[in-house]
Amino acid sequence: MAQSCNYHRRATAEWHCASCSRDLCRSCIPGAAANYPGGQPDCPLCRQALEYTGASNSARPFWQMGPFFFRYALQPGPLTVIGLSALASLLISGLNLVSLAMLVGAMALVTRYNLLVIETLARGRLTAPPLGEALDGRSAPMFLKVIAMMLVAGFVGYKLIPLGERTLQLYSIALSLLAPAAMIVLAVEGSLRAAINPLKLFYFTVVIGWPYWLLWLATGAVSSAPGYLILAIGDELPRWAILPAIAASTGYFYIVTSAMMGYICLTRQKQLGITPDMEDDSELMDEGEFERARTLAETHILLSEGDYQGARQALVQTLRRYSEDPALNERYYRLLLAQHDTGALRELAPHLLEKFVRQDRAYKAAELYIATDPPPVIDNSRLRHALAEALYRQQKFRAAARLLNNLHRDDPGYGNLDAAYLLLARVYVDGFNREDMAQKLLTFIRKHFPDSKLRDEITTLQGILAH
């Protein structure tokens, strides 16, 4: 089962901090690797380098990935290798030196590519490597190592002949069972000594566990598929096409089995000590966007850990540079609420709420105003009016009425007093069924604002109340 993030339970972790024993997701570590110094994200708590676990942690169990392996071999890189194998089989004629050289070269390239498939999948890269990555000068050495593995296996078998047929049978079974492990170890470590070390191979099978034996069965079945395929369609093909068909089908199923071997290592990446490759498909952020996103992520983590002071310091530091950022301001307001810092709320709440209104987020300002206990004292009439309107839409009638009551006494020169009291009249009607209070307010508006642009709305509301 995939490891969940410690701070976002529904998210799969992609990073691990060995020092803090914390698993973190993309929300905790925003941006791309290039956004961080040295291209290496660090832990928000201890600032130690994080270990990437994304591909391994999100990997599904091996037995659920059947379709993936067969689709994997149909990507451009594998198809190129398959096509070259088929073409090489057409060009090989007879047993002359040129044909023999082409055959050995093709086998070396195919072997190198399949070992590369195992290696890249084991490190977490789910897309097949292009052919160019196999042209790294290691085709001949890796091919020779595979030949050497076969020679060592044959030599050991030869030495066991004097011990009898039963011993040879047991040895043959052991070779068959450990063959996938040997190829995987050679691909991942590149060491012939490790690939022929029986203790190393046995340890590998123990770490993988019972899925290794499922891998053994699957690779055995898939490896035999080309023979059955040629038997089925061989009579339908022209003679010249039989050899290319054998080469293509063998190449295809060889890559499928290599994908199986690589993927099963991916599911046990950490236990096998395989260094993961980070497929960083996150979008690179500009400096300001990244700093704000990182501050939000870190404060969420610090708050989850109960470090309110650390979270507050981080927010204040970033707000000095990005004072108008809505998300940072909201997080800061909610932090003050969580800390029950009534002194800071008394001083800062009106300014923060005004920012939200100015940013066309009056609904958020109303939500935070309701959450503040005791409610902040607001002297700005425009802010009181905007908050009351948002609260009215949210059916928070009592809070809306509290903001608008006696506004004509507190600020007689407020330019939108007629609109504010029309809103208050609606609050009394819809929230308290106080039609008498609403009528008094409408009369007040008509008396003091005879030329109000809202007179049609006032007349309509008065008509409704009259009935």
Give a quick account of the main beta sheet: strands, pairing sense, barrel closure. Answer: 3 strands, antiparallel
User: How many beta-strand elements?
Assistant: 3
SSE arrangement, N to C:
EEEHHHHHHHHHHHHHHHHHHHHHHH
Strands in their spatial order, largest beta sheet:
2-1-3
Mean pLDDT: 89
Shape: elongated
Distance between the termini: 66 Å
The share of residues in helices is: 55-70%
Structural account:
By secondary structure, this protein is mainly α. The chain is 66% helix and 2% strand. It is built from 23 helices and three strands. The chain has a three-stranded antiparallel beta sheet, with no helix packed on it. Helix 4 (97-122) crosses helix 6 and helix 14 (308-319) runs antiparallel to helix 15 (326-339). The two termini are 66 Å apart.
Task: Give a summary of the structure in a few sentences.
This protein has 467 residues and is mostly helical.
Key descriptive features of the protein:
single chain; 467 residues; mainly alpha; Serine Threonine Protein Phosphatase 5, Tetratricopeptide repeat; 3-stranded antiparallel β-sheet; 23 helices; 3 strands; elongated
What topology does this entry show?
Blueprint: E1 15-17, E2 22-24, E3 51-52, H1 54-58, H2 66-72, H3 76-91, H4 97-122, H5 131-134, H6 139-160, H7 165-189, H8 192-195, H9 198-208, H10 210-223, H11 225-233, H12 239-266, H13 287-304, H14 308-319, H15 326-339, H16 342-358, H17 362-371, H18 381-393, H19 397-404, H20 407-410, H21 417-432, H22 435-448, H23 455-466
